[in-house]
Amino acid sequence: MEKLVSVFIFFTTFLSIIITIAAKGCWTNGWAINVVNDIDNNKAPIQVHCKSKDDDIGMKSLGFHQSVDWKFCEKVITPSTLYFCHFYMGNKEQVFDVFNDTHKSLCQETDKSKDYWACTWLVRPDGFYIVDRKDGGEKVVKIHDWKQGRV
Ligand SMILES: *[C@@H]1O[C@H](CO)[C@@H](O)[C@H](O)[C@H]1NC(C)=O
Description:
The protein is of the alpha+beta class and 151 residues long. The chain has helices spanning 2-24, 101-107; strands at residues 30-37, 46-52, 56-62, 67-73, 83-89, 92-99, 116-124, 127-132, 139-144, 147-148. It has a five-stranded mixed sheet. The longest helix has 23 residues, at 2-24.
């Protein structure tokens, strides 16, 4: 009988852990990346191709206020996930990491209970801005310029 009780306790504990993880979506931190075209309504769409070592988001064409969005869970063992995007706007281009250990600290929100922390990039005519949420607000900070020609 005693054995049966401990087996029962083991399984209910195991089950509640699984349910907790399934509800949260990730073992550790989850991240929701948004790359938003914030370039004037009447301009031509931009092209954005984002990927990581093992996840290709694909080439997307973004009109005004359209975005490419994806979510991922940080790896438990090796948590340094890296996503980079290649941007095309007419004869200008740029390529950089949209998510790495540097940007992670800016995107990390103060609300620890959130399932996914948002990491938002705004693509503007004069360059690329990240939304800094680390102090609880939403501070828009310029990180990169566009480059003339191919990169
Ligand atoms: C993260 O990416 C930025 C470019 O957006 C780069 O300047 C920075 O050095 C990178 N950080 C790491 C830790 O690789």
